Amino acid sequence: ARWMGTPYAYGGNTLQGIDCSGLTCAIYSNVYKTKLHRRSIDQYKFDCHSVGVPRQGDLLFFAFSDQVNVSHINHVGIHLRDNRFIHASSSRGVVVDNMTSYFQRHLVAVGRVKQ
C-alpha cells in the first residue's frame, strides 16, 4: 500500500519514482524475501515459470508494442485478486487496475516466481 501513488520514473526504484519492474522487485524483496531480475523481460525469462490462471502474487507480463508476444515484453504487474493487479503506469504512477479488455489484449504471459 505504501507504493500507491508513487510517480513513474524509468529506472526508478524509490518512493520518489519507480518503474514497473522496479516495483515488482521491491514488492518481492519486501513481501516475499525474493530477489528478482531488474528488467521485466528478464523476470519472465529467469525468475518465473509460466502458468495459465493467475493467483495472488503471480506476475503478469505485457507487450505494449506492435508485436504482442513474449519476445516483446515491456511491462509487468502483480496479480492481486478479483481480476485486479498493481503496476507502475507510465502516465499514472503506481496504481491498481482491473484487467480490462485493453490489458487482456496486451497480456502475453502469467508467471509464477520460482521458489
Architecture blueprint of SSEs:
Layout: E1 13-14, E2 17-18, H1 20-31, H2 40-47, E3 48-50, E4 59-62, E5 75-79, E6 84-89, E7 93-98, H3 101-106, E8 107-113
Antiparallel strand pairs: 1-2, 3-8, 4-5, 4-8, 5-6, 6-7
In a few lines, what is going on in this structure?
With 115 residues, this protein is an alpha+beta fold.
Number of strands: 8
Q: Give me the secondary-structure category.
A: alpha+beta
Give me the number of helical elements.
3
On the 0 to 100 scale, the average pLDDT is 96
Portion in helices: 10-25%
Q: What percentage of amino acids are in beta strands?
A: 25-35%
Q: Within the largest sheet, what's the order of strands? A: 3-8-4-5-6-7
Whole-angstrom Rg: 13 Å
Series of H and E elements: EEHHEEEEEHE
Largest sheet: 6 strands, antiparallel
Query: What is the overall shape?
Result: globular
Runs with pLDDT <50, length 5+?
Answer: none
**N-C termini distance:** 24 Å
Which descriptors apply to this entry?
115 residues; alpha+beta; 6-stranded antiparallel β-sheet; two-stranded antiparallel ribbon
If you had to describe this structure to a student in words, what would you say it looks like?
The chain is α+β, with helices and mostly antiparallel strands and 115 residues long. It contains three helices and eight strands, in the order E-E-H-H-E-E-E-E-E-H-E. The chain has helices at 20-31, 40-47, 101-106, and strands at residues 13-14, 17-18, 48-50, 59-62, 75-79, 84-89, 93-98, 107-113. The strands form two sheets. It has a six-stranded antiparallel sheet with strand order 3-8-4-5-6-7. It has a two-stranded antiparallel sheet with strand order 1-2. The longest helix is centred in the N-terminal third of the chain and has 12 residues, at 20-31. The chain is globular and about 30 Å long.
